[in-house]
Write a structure and sequence with these properties.
Elements: H1 6-11, H2 20-34, H3 38-52, H4 56-68, H5 72-86, H6 90-102, H7 106-119, H8 125-137, H9 141-153, H10 174-187, E1 197-199, E2 205-207, E3 215-221, H11 226-242, E4 247-253, H12 258-268, E5 273-276, H13 284-288, E6 296-300, E7 306-309, H14 313-325
Parallel strand pairs: 3-4, 4-5
Antiparallel strand pairs: 1-2, 3-6, 6-7
Helix pairs in contact: 2-3, 2-4, 3-4, 4-5, 5-6, 6-7, 7-8, 8-9, 9-10, 11-14
Length: 327
Amino acid sequence: MRKLSVVLLLIGFVVFPLLADEKEAIEKATQYFKDKEHARALDTVDEAIKEFGFTRNLMRLKVIMFVRLEKLEKAAAVINKGIKTFGESPEFLMQKLFLQMKQEKYKEALKTALRKDEIIKEKSPFDCMDVVEIYIKLNNKDKALEWLDKAIDRGFNTLRSLDSPTLDSLRSDPRFEKIRQKMKNIIGLEKTAKDFTVKLYQGKDFQLSKQKGKVVLIDFWATWCGPCRKEIPNLKQYYQAFKGKGFEIIGISLDKQEKQLKEYLETEKLPWKISYSGKFWNDDTARLYNVHSIPSYWLIDKKGILRYFGLRGEQLKKAVEELLAEK
């Protein structure tokens, strides 16, 4: 379940080109804030606004400062001014939603979330999950289940999220188990894994359907993904232990920058097969498997059947051992 968090607040805005003088003012204000000279930092931002105008970058900085100071009403006022000045956008509405949820203004948050979902071009399952969480807060189980189902139709496939405490109030409803089963069916568990052919970073082609007789882990990952990198030592351990017994890993990199990937591979010396398209979330294989979050692990048995999804750590290791032991 995605949580609206300060992390989202920090990355949610587009960073717009900076004028040299504006950049200098932002750097100065940021340093004051780091030094805990909060009043001086905010004064510096206000002075920059008087000189350069109410720019998106200065607005962004002021919102971040107010949030970190827990002055949420003031942060909300800046966001509202931004929407009035620059127009409604998914990025601004996301920030507004974050603040409303933090202030427990759930009815207002619902309006913001629905409006954001209405205007956004590429419909996301995570926007649905935001609405689910709000309806749960408002004790509207029917609407929460309706939007949870909609999230799955949009490609939400993180099974472990269905075990989140946030969804506890829905779990006793028979519709919830139907939704869980629907997700499993869309993922394709216990069905033949979707076939694909990719060009390996090493230069050759890899076709999934030609790996019969092997246990294959499809790993959707990226160098910019902290949780992905955290799991790399485990994957190295499993690959070293099981590669001689018929275990294969195909890593589908969702990196944007080939240079970053190349440097990481040279440093970490990953021993398994890697594919890279440079298409980010629009990677063909990622779209085929409806991948919207990473790391995303898909474990396929010797017959080409998708047997496990989303396992990590010791659970993944035990599943690999189990499938390798099968005839």
